[in-house]
Amino acid sequence: MSSKLPLVQGTLDLLVLGALSGGARHGYGIATVIEERTHGALDVEDGALYQALHRLDRDGLVEAEWRPSENNRRARYYALSTAGRRRLREEAVTWRRYSRAVEAVLQGA
Amino acid sequence: MDERERRERRRPFWYLRRKPEAVAAEVDEELEAHLAMRIEELRARGLSEAEARREALRRFGDLDAARAYCRDQDDGKEERMQRRLWLEDLRHDLRTCLRSLARAPLVSLTIVLKVGLGIGATTAIATAIHAVVLKPLPYPDADSLVRIYTDSPPNKFRFSVADFQALEAQQTQFERVAGYTERSVAWSDGATAEKLRARSVSWRYFGLLGLTPALGRDLIEADGKPGAPRTALVSHRFWTERLGGRADAVGGTVRFDGVPYTVVGVLPPRLGPLEHGIEVFTAAQWAPPPRKGPFFIITLGRLKAGAAQPAAEELRAINKRIFPLWQSSYADRRATWSMNDLKNEIVGESKTRAGLALGAVALVWLIACANASNLLVARVVSRRRELAVRSALGATRERVVRHLLAESALLAIAAAGAGAALAAAGTRLLRTFGEGYTPRAAEIGMGGGAVALLVLLAAASALLFGLAPAVHGTGGTAPSEALQGSGRTATVGLGARRLRRLLVATQFAVATPLLVVAGLLLASLQRLQRVDLGFDPRNLLGGSIYLPEAPYPEAGKVAAFWSELERRVAELPGVSGVAFADGRPPDDVGNFNNFDLEDSPTQPGGSEPVTPWLQVTPEYFRLLGVPLIEGRTFDERDGGTGSVEEAVVDRAWAKRFFPNGSAVGKRFHEGGCRECPWTRVVGVVGDVPYAGLAQPDEGSVYWPMPGRATKPNADSMVRFRYLLVRTKSNAGDLAPAIRRVLHELDPSLPISDLATQEDLVARSVQGTRSLSLLVGGLALAALLLSVIGIYGVMAYFVEQHAREVGIRLALGGSRGSVLGLIVGQGMRVAAAGVAVGLAAAFVATRLVASLLFGIGAADAPTFLAVGGLLTLAALLACLIPAARAAAVAPATVLRGD
Known about the structure:
- The complex is a heterodimer of chains A (109) and B (897).
- Chain A has 109 residues and is an alpha+beta fold.
- Chain A has one domain: Arc Repressor Mutant, subunit A, CATH 1.10.10.10.
- Chain A is built from 4 helices and 3 strands, in the order αβααββα.
- The model of chain A has no long low-confidence stretch (mean pLDDT 88).
- By secondary structure, chain B is of the alpha+beta class.
- In chain B, a hairpin with a 2-residue loop joins β1 (145-152) and β2.
């Protein structure tokens, strides 16, 4: 846990959108998904995560709704909006091309 | 269900307006929930409560910053949602309104056109008035500019050279003073000759007005010294069109009236209203005068800050100081020096006209709004069921009012669009049209002010014609009541009827003064056109010629030119007579002169009488057809030959100064010259107006101009003359021939203002005519609107009371009584409006008294005629629906229910 990777600039929004591709989740759930899928490799502060969520909500990329959680607590659930889904698709393509390009250079070294 | 309501149901509940506190609480709750879940997870892994909390907070990072950021984002979102909802509401309202307006296209169109006309015309005229009357003059610090004159009530005289030089030398309360005189100069490039409007200005003129040349230099003191090389500044137009727009034209020489002038500068393209149409500004060179007169200098001053009072006192003091110096040639002790705001001088005369025009259009706008309001009230009444359904379905009263107001707003916006188009066209028209009336017409244009006024008027219109029906349409009856009554029999509430009648009465009350003023103006116009000209204007052509000093230096040459011109013009086919004069009816007096009668000399210190003073050749009276009343006119002997000067006076003069006897044989000294020989009156002729048709004739004096047989000498040399030609047929046809004769004689001489007398007379009444027609047209519009208004109300009244009428008739009531009842209903309303209107007219006409001619402001026949006309029109408008009501077959109406 001591050697967490700092987040590459601008990737937090993509991570959040990606975490929501499976369905509606609350903030804590999103944090858990990111942690599980990356096996804790990324250093994502919970506070930054919420800031990203509210920013995405304001921009209409996610839709938020209060709902009872799995253990009957009132929680704010987020789901991708149509615009959010489109953004995720675009960003994912860009990210993959980007990382392939970086990879290609590194392999040539 | 309404589309909007459907959408509202779909809308998640938190999209309803949330308060900022609610937004903040929500963020807190969300973050709180997160921390709780995190702690729960950590505790499940075996951490103690305190450790778990510490770890959860560590993993969260900066809690306060995150909270603030989230709140901020949520507020932003909230705002955006509200905006979008508002826009959607608006779109929805507009759609509904458009649909409901489209259901009554005729009503909507009428309202848009009527109110649009009102808005547009009011904007156009207000814009013109702002530019011409209200706006400060376009000179820097224009408020400190004044015109200075000699005040000898009721006359205001210009300054003489003696006055001006004394003022310039002695004044201390003005930053600058300057003087100018109008002149016209002939300019020729060899091929054509052109008459240019020119101005001879003292060297401080441009500095005083804050004008700087675009090219070259301003005038300097040396330019104004008598005998210095002559210098001039030219207008931008003259420079580009006549001097080729070349920079080296500055410093070059241009000949005006044959005299060489050095062009020292070119003025900027835009000057002030005072310089309107002037092409050449020459440096005035005024030599110290031997006597006080003549008085020809228009004097301007720029006050030092706050010096208005001391300046006025100083003017009086300087006048008093120099009075003794000139006593031998000037005896008017009563006269003093005064000043007047320059803007007043320029716009003064147009103020009343402008006010009247604006008042008239504004009133028509008001009537249009009242009329529109009336139509809408009627529509609301007939839509009562629809509105009742709406409120029964849960629409709040505010919502219905809002809907109705939105309809009005939509109508007003459409009207504003129509009005904007009209105002744009109108201001263009007024600018062209105004050229002839005011030097400031060029400043008329649609600016930000006009747009603001348009918007304001549209908003006011919407409120004026929308509020009454909106408030009315929702008040009063409960929805259940309105729903129960079937549409046909439901009689309208008393309120609506009262409201509509009030609106109709208002229209009549507003239309009445408008019609009275229009009537008075049209009567003035008619009287003006019927003024006895005192001569025969048909087949009479005239134009003026000025002989410059350089090519015509001495009397012999001048006289030779005039007699040769007369001979050649007289020989033209179609010419039956030629005469010369230095003035021309009906608007050019030429000169005024003062005189002292032998029989009733002016007391020392008093002012001598002043009248128009025309110099004419002997043929003048016969040529114009001015009748000889007593004595004789001039013959070829007169005109600077004998030792006794001879004069002919007109009837008004004879009556004014010799009311009890003949004026023939009486003598006077003219021009304040006591040593000169007496001038003797030899004849009295009919009156001819020279100072405009509307001016009272105060008497004119004619003195002889050297004719053909006179021997030329320096005294009899007249450089400026009107050439007047009597023709056998249409006078205008001869203009080209006369130009040709003059061109053959001297191609460098232009002829100015060549026009037929009939045109001149028509031009003279043009101002009154256009104002009368404008106000008359507006009054007619007001009358029509009022009549339409009352017709609408009465037609509706009849429709609503068809059943009642049917019952009356069935019970044996006579058709006459029905007719009388209904007409009486309408006429009470109209008569009340007309009565109020006549009272208002009594006040209003006083304000325009100065525009009237030959008719009093409280002219009883006009008031009676207008009252009668309006009553008659109202009667007709009521009779049609009343007759229809009286004609119903009672059985049909009763069965039909």
